[in-house]
Specification:
The chain has seven helices and five strands, in the order E-H-E-H-H-E-H-H-E-H-E-H. With 196 residues, the chain is α/β, with parallel strands linked by helices.
Length: 196
Amino acid sequence: MRNGRVVISGCSGGGKSTLLAELKARGHAVVEEPGRRIIAEETARGGSALPWVDLAAFLRRAVDLALADHAAAAAQEGWVFFDRGLVDAASALEALTGDPVLRPLCTAHRYHPRMFMAPPWPEIYVTDADRRHGFDAAVAEYERLLGAYPALGYEVLPLPKLAPPARADVVLSALAGPYAPAGAGAVRAGARIRPT
């Protein structure tokens, strides 16, 4: 296996975490979302690198953590599934600050060429202590990521709105076949997928 690091990204509250829990239950390595880990650390120590206090500091920490996660996963055997990754953090930092970090960082640190995108799913979207933004902000983030991943050469496969076991089957089936850049259901740069 050339690169077993697979990103699952997309809309906040779109069912990524439950999908990753299912993949973990099936014996696959999973890397938790950098943002939630940073929020837990910053809250515990009374820090300010929180998205609702200092978003730029939070995103810089997310980039650093995503780079460390990417490097650590290189030693893993088999598939390693990431709940978001470097592209998510770097694209958000670039959008916020204008610093041109996305292309240099994400060209040097690649994931598997196929990634999976969770669409907006208003029926299951909820806020919590760590996810304070509303659904409109989640959709805006999703739209930004829909542009970022294909622009970096990733084949974006939309995740269907299914229960976690069925979603996990979709992911594993898509990774089992030979990599075909023009595969069915892929999103190319400039293309748009609509939520179902």
